[in-house]
Amino acid sequence: MKNVDVLFFDILGTVVDWRGSITDKVEAFLKRHDISHIDARALTDTWVGHYDRAIDPIRKGQRSFTSLDTINRENLETCLAQFNLPPSQFDHEELNILSHAWHTLDPWPDAVEGITRLKEHYIVAPLSDGHTRLLINMAKHAHLPWDMIFGADMSQSYKPSPRAYLHACELLNISPQRAMLVAAHDYDLEGARSCGLKTAFVPREHGANPSKETDAPLPDQWDYKAGNLLELAALLNKIR
């Protein structure tokens, strides 16, 4: 696309299948402990569903910046207790390993090739609530071909706080108008647009935070819409 140099990507749900990947790890955890009466998908969705509520106090300045590792670990214990699984009955290190599942989420089938094609003409980088080390580990696990990585720890803010978007633009020495956010989440795209970025909507089935899943997507509001990242690459590279 003309006049756009950088494509920022939301990660959780847009580039990687967070709920599916975490469900696999939760299912293995339950099986190891011979817990058959709890559905792994339900436990996962509860855990993921706590994510947004847990970082909201940070967005509002009611809690100092805390990495997603800490947030996820806290939420895991809360979630286990909700399912009548006292965290104290499990080995502390095993819970740490389960929480670390967020570092090794699997990409959607179109993600690697789609980003690779877009990289031919644009700077491509994640702009995520994940912190830098988490995103590096995820990129290595999923073979994501980023030019640069922007973790939430770099801006000390979580989306859709304006600083999350503007700080990334500042570090690349570009105006927001020369950047675009690619995401499957309307609230994230709205946050980017309010800061002057272009927007591209890529829908993902089961890609939403379960706590926001009832919100109907509004694809017609955004500058571009594509069924997946391969389609987006074909669209943007054509008009480059």
From TrEMBL:
Q: Does the keyword Hydrolase apply?
A: yes
TM ranges are none
Q: Which UniProt keywords are present, listed alphabetically?
A: Hydrolase
Instruction: Look up the domain of life of the source.
Output: Bacteria
Name under which the protein is recorded: Haloacid dehalogenase type II
Which organism does this record belong to? Alcaligenes faecalis
